[in-house]
Amino acid sequence: MPLESIRKRAAEALAAALEAEFDHRPEEVVLEVPPRRELGDLAWPGALPLARELKRAPRQIAEGVAEKAAWPEEVERVEIAGPGFLNLFLKRDVLLTGILREEHDGGADASGKTIVEHTNINPNKAAHIGHLRNAVLGDILVRCLRHLGHEVEVQDYIDDTGVQVADVVVGFLFLPESELAEALGVEPSRRDELIELAMKRASGEEVPAASTADFDDLCWKIYPRVTARYETEPEFAAHRAEVLHMVEAGHGGLELDTALQLIRGAVVAGDSFSGRAVARLASTVAESNVRCHLATMARLGVAYDLLPHESDILLLGFWRRAFELLQDAGAIRLEEDGKNKGCWVMSLAASPEFADMDDPDKILVRSNGTVTYTGKDIAYQLWKLGLLPDPDGSRHDFGYRAFTRWSQPAPALPVRYGKGSEVLVRTISDLAETMPGRSFGSGRKVYNVIDVRQSYPQKVVKEAVRVLGHPEAADNSVHFAYEMVALTPAAVRLIEERTGSSFGLSEEAMAKAYIDMSGRRGIGVKADEFLDILTAAAGDAVAERADEGSAVDDLPNRARAIAVGALRYLMARQSRNRVLAFDFKEALAFEGDTGPYLQYSAVRAQKIFDKLKVKRGEGRLAPEEIDSLAGAEIGDDLWELVLQCARRREVIGQAVDNLEFSLLAQHVHEMAQLFHSLYHAHPVVPEEDAELRRLRRAVFTLFDREMKVLLEELLGIPVPEEM
RNA sequence: CCGCCUGUAGCUCAGCAGGAUAGAGCAACGGACUUCUAAUCCGUAGGUCAGAGGUUCGAGUCCUCUCAGGCGGACCA
Length: 723
Known about the structure:
Number of helices: 27
CATH superfamily of the largest domain: HUPs
CATH class of the largest domain: Alpha Beta
Radius of gyration: 29 Å
CATH topology of the largest domain: Rossmann fold
Strand order of the largest sheet: 5-4-12-13
Structural class: alpha/beta
Strand content: 5-15%
């Protein structure tokens, strides 16, 4: 970016002048962009803090530096303002032509692979809007990192061995048949028929087209019924342990059809269920839910490279190896007595972060010998960082197999699994299987996108990496924490109305500002359902604004694009450590500080060039026209937009450093505002003065190009042809 | 009890290496569609940045305390 380069050279000039004039070597010279353009384009406030040290008036320091410095040629003039700000004014035409000339500014970064883990939805029911926050934040991070030139690998961890999956299976096998029938929306029938009917809805090999009648939606209905029954009927809860046990024993390669036959036989004979058949059912439930989740995320253009499965981590002994390493390092110990008797614990007492805790020990292996989630997570994190070697020094690794291929054209944004290869890979427990040309794990930096409530276990994982002798890797393990998505009382009422059910919340609970979502109790907004509502509302808005009577071209695509834009911007705009109180009214707003506002500005820019082509035979500014802009007078308002366009890299860098995409959102919003304002004040097509027209074309060409990058590439917000 | 987060306009939120006059959107009010599509623009009004101290040339931003709310401190994840 020319602006980056000017900044760097100006800072160097400034530092040199400081040394020459005042014999002072500053640690770092920071040039910021002043709040108002009459104060210049870049500013150095550094004279103020230096005043005391150099025993001179700040203005005097600034003046000395201003005169002495060998400013870059792009600097037109410098001014001293206020108490001692040194303000630089740039040659506007030079910066404009500089940016226009620039093609791609990838700037490859060879610092090693970055792994981003996000989404991580339990494969036991449909995704809800809370999961969307995770996926959208993770996806934007991935896009920003890739834009900055990093090699990025995206992992979506599948917890396929958890009790939640078993709970759904308990529902299929033991809920009253009338409840199953109701969930399926059929007349009551025998259990085996109901199960077969349910499994018919399980998705096959491909990513299905997302709808709200998928297998994950069926599970969404069943799961809360099961957990509710656990509480009211203690004997029902016994089924949970029974099924979990069967799932853990594995299905040994049993086919689903065979499993269903076995289940049918058991139902007819009144026998107990075959363990392998039940395990097969569970694995199908998990896998089918994963495909449904992929379909949901694909609607938003979210893609992944690898699906690590918890079952493979267990089967391949990742934990066993991590356990050995922890033992060798003396990081864990077996408790001989006390309340943790029989458990393997990791002491956190040595770490200042945990020093004030009542009990600074974290249990990694329970007294019954099973590993806690945190334990498994330590093993997984070590693998992600390339720090899980086998005794012979080779890397402890997974087997890999293609999981699914992306082929649907429907989503608003392109979906590219596997960094463009369109093949999404999953881990498997057979080490003999590999994916030629692809290797996974061993990241130099790892981001774990997980909600803020997981801060404690995340710190424990990080600490484990540290005590194993990898302090640098621990520092490179970043918990990207974000606050929860909750529902406003109005949203809860609307869901109750739509589903014709009541969550049984007290008046007191409903009087709060927001209500927590609860998967267990089934309080929440399904992602697909919300996307459907949003898309329908966007479609209505498109139709409403269209000329009366005329048919709207390509309405479904436009509606999809606007819905995705609205949602993704909503998620990006709010800072991550604030609870997002989800309100339908606000989420469905398409005017003001919203995604569609940004999309509209990009569409408007496109439209200028469409019209220009028809009316004057001109288009976007061509490369050979750039030179003719030299010496052009660029007014303050146009200049403001040019300068904003030039700041992209600075803003992305800041957003990534702080993991705060509200900065990026605000940047884009400001640009769109500037553009909309210029749109009225600086018409292009009707302008008769050729030179003026060319300048406006130049600025809008820049904006048009910039918005495509900011919206489509970085925020994942599609720019439709028309609104 | 300890730790982390939050408190900014009536409402929802920006303001992230301390900087120049605290910004948007919604809601309210007044204007602009024969236009490059008004999902827009222009304008008016709205603020002791929870409170009190402190550091600093300068504090919404850093430090301390207080108040209010949220989340953690599980052999749950």
